[in-house]
């Protein structure tokens, strides 16, 4: 999940442990830089030396904030959960409208992403138990939210979760590249998914 579309207009190291000396050296600076590297090259691209070079500081600065690379990766996953799920849900709810409106807007939001982050995290989860568990929880959270919207919009309670799961899997399928489509076609397909989810 990404930014919400507004449908109203459409190990510890022995390196020196110097204290940070500017606001950009706080832990969030490392996490932001790691996130950018992850988005471009996946989890294997997130390495301490390249990150320090990217930030223009020494490697030792990293260990002021993080015990090791694994701790940074945990923080990166936390950022993904917050930015790509919780914030999306909050913004979608803040956008208002009926449950049907909110569900359509959410589906449109999904349709306008390029999928790099989503597929990167899922590839990571294929070989990392911690990442896999976080992805599982995120999937459950997203599907439950979509099912709640579908129920509120009129879908039978007995079918809402299954419909949400089908729509969610269809959205993820857009990123596999098996059947490439344009953004416009994805939005049109999401409209069809919306109709399927809210029909009585």
Task: Explain what you see.
- With 200 residues, the chain is an all-alpha fold.
- It folds into two domains: 13-95, Arc Repressor Mutant, subunit A (Orthogonal Bundle); 97-200, no CATH class.
- The protein is 66% helix and 0% strand.
- The protein is built from nine helices and no strands.
- It has helices at 27-41, 48-55, 62-65, 69-94, 99-111, 116-125, 129-152, 157-173, 183-198.
- Helix 1 (27-41) packs across helix 4 and helix 5 (99-111) packs antiparallel against helix 9.
- The longest helix is centred in the middle third of the chain and has 26 residues, at 69-94.
- The protein is elongated.
- The two termini are 27 Å apart.
- Mean pLDDT is 87; it is low at 7-24.
- Keywords: DNA-binding.
- This is TetR/AcrR family transcriptional regulator.
- Residues 24-84 form the HTH tetR-type domain.
- Residues 47-66 bind DNA.
Structural class: mainly alpha
- What is the makeup of the main sheet? none
Overall domain count: 2
Helix content: 55-70%
- Rounded mean pLDDT is 87
DSSP strand content: under 5%
State the order of secondary-structure elements, H for helix, E for strand. Answer: HHHHHHHHH
Strand segment tally: 0
Rg over CA atoms: 20 Å
Number of helices: 9
**Poorly predicted tracts of residues:** 7-24
End-to-end Cα distance:
27 Å
Shape: elongated
């Amino acid at each position: 999940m990404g930014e919400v579309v507004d449908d109203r207009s459409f190990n510890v190291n022995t390196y020196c442990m110097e204290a940070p000396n500017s606001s950009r050296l706080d832990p969030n600076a490392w996490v932001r830089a790691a996130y950018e590297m992850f988005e471009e090259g996946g989890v294997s691209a997130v390495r301490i030396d390249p990150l320090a070079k990217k930030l223009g500081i020494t490697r030792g600065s990293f260990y002021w904030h993080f015990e090791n690379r694994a701790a940074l990766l945990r923080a990166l996953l936390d950022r993904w959960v917050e930015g790509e799920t919780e914030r999306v849900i909050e913004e979608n709810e803040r956008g208002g409208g009926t449950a049907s409106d909110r569900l359509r807007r959410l589906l449109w939001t999904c349709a306008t992403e390029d999928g790099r982050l989503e597929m990167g995290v899922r590839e990571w989860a294929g070989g990392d138990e911690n990442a896999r568990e976080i992805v599982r929880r995120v999937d459950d959270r997203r599907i439950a939210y979509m099912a709640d919207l579908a129920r509120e919009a009129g879908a039978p309670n007995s079918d809402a979760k299954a419909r949400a799961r089908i729509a969610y899997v269809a959205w993820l399928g857009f990123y596999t590249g098996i059947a490439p489509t344009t953004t416009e076609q994805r939005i049109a397909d999401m409209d069809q998914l919306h109709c399927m989810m809210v029909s009585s």
